[in-house]
Amino acid sequence: MAYRWETPASVWLEDDKSGRFELVSSEGLSRIDWHAQERGRVPDCAQLLGASLPLSCDCSPIFPEGFAFCPNCGRALDKLAGQYKNQPDWWGPWSDQFLPRHVPHGLPVTMLALGDSLEERPAAPAIGRVELAMPVPPNAECVFAAGAYGFPVPRLLALACARGVLQYWDPMAQLWHVMAAEPGAASLAFTAAEYAWIPALNPMRGEVALLPSDTGLHRLWINPVSETYRTECVLDAPLASSPGMIRRHVACLFNSDGGARLWTADGAEATVFDCGGVPASGWSRPIGYDDRLTWLHAQGQLSWRAGTAPQWLPWPAGWTPRAEFGGPTQSRDGRLWLIGHGADGYSFLELGTATPQSEPVNGARLGFASLLFRRGHAVVGDPWDPEHVEDPHDDDTLVLPLLRGFNNNRSQPSGLILRFHKYTGRAEDALSGRTIARTTVEWIGKRNVILDEIVRLARPLACVPFVYDGCLWLHHPDWNRMRGWRLEELS
């Protein structure tokens, strides 16, 4: 026989002989397989549920939410409900929902005040060291999300989108778990374009995001107690691009028998536009700016504004974009520009117009969203302006920006960068097949801080920064452990 306990969110059973509690169901979660988790995941599950843990009694390894004392022996319990403070979510460096409208959405820019903490460390030329380490996920080519997903505590997810493998980090056991698909769940694999998801605002319990897959657009739900996930279909069609959102409008490209089409939705109403002739794959993640969404491609750009038909604009003849250099950047008058290469060398091309202006430059410039570098020097004016030389020794270095920290001072760049030392070759070579002998991870801002040093770095574009549990982390698929630096409390 078992006694039934009901809390506002869960149902528990108490064994009348052993006195041990077992979770039967919980709000928002699918089937609970409690016995499979009882051995090693009790501390993690207790935090997720806001349950209570024993301090000194052995009556049960876990107690229902709100229990302050053991009902059998009367000893005090560790009541986890209400103990944890909210932490900011992280949905990838390209998915900060709180950026102001005059900043392009979809580029690696964050509103989090990372510099307030990182710049307290000794300034360059002092070389810092990694302060924390975390094992790399089993499927290392992945994107990260850190959020509460409707639970009392935040948790880290790593989605290997090429293979469709969803991985969950158990911070109590310091282990990665691969989440299993529930019956009927769609595959999470997506290989047609750059990956981007749309996080759920004010999520219900277990609700994660709207995400693309090779079979359609789906809403993802997780059950971290049972280590499973399920999906809800929003658009049943093979996608050609990741979804984007501007105001309340969601849009993405999909493929049909008649060619590529643009699907848009505002609430329950959906509209489909014919985009015949545009590529069926290979799109960048969407950029939201000036009340429109733009997808970039090696052949051109597709721009869409709510209430109008999409516009396909091929690149000028002979001009090829250099998307690997970073992405669109802004001029002082607010226009977006993309660097590329043509018959006359490198140039910046204006985006979003059928008659674009072109501005030549004297070499490769790496960066995005006004965080731009020519070799080792920052470009603080228009993208084609001369670089600002502070230290001539930086001429033999090459800077690759990873993440811009938003501020309103254009003359003071702020962000996370990689600096390749003693490198005078082509930027394209450094970003592709070349192994860089010495690289430093740096935060630039009011004070420049060297966070760490990397020996023999290959594939620098695979470096992924993310924020989780009050720390800045840097991941690379070739490393065995991710590098972390503590941050002060983020608001």
Description:
Helices cover 4% and strands 40% of the residues. It is mainly β. It has two domains: 3-79, no CATH class; 109-486, Methylamine Dehydrogenase, Chain H (7 Propeller), CATH 2.130.10. β8 and β9 (155-160) form a beta hairpin. It is globular. The model has no long low-confidence stretch (mean pLDDT 94).
Quick recap:
The protein has 491 residues and is mainly beta.
Key words describing this protein structure:
491 residues; mainly beta; Methylamine Dehydrogenase, Chain H; 5-stranded mixed beta sheet; 4 helices; 39 strands; 4% helix
Described by strand count, sense and barrel closure, the largest sheet is:
5 strands, mixed
> Order of strands side by side in the largest beta sheet?
6-33-34-35-36
Number of strands: 39
Relative strand content: 35-45%
SSE topology:
Layout: E1 2-6, E2 10-15, E3 21-26, H1 34-37, H2 42-49, E4 52-54, E5 77-79, E6 109-110, H3 114-118, E7 132-135, E8 143-147, E9 155-160, E10 165-170, E11 175-178, E12 180-181, E13 198-199, E14 207-213, E15 216-223, E16 228-235, E17 244-246, E18 249-256, E19 259-266, E20 269-274, E21 287-289, E22 292-296, E23 300-305, E24 311-314, E25 320-321, E26 329-330, E27 336-342, E28 345-350, E29 358-360, E30 366-368, E31 371-374, E32 377-379, E33 398-405, E34 415-420, H4 427-431, E35 436-444, E36 449-457, E37 464-468, E38 471-475, E39 481-486
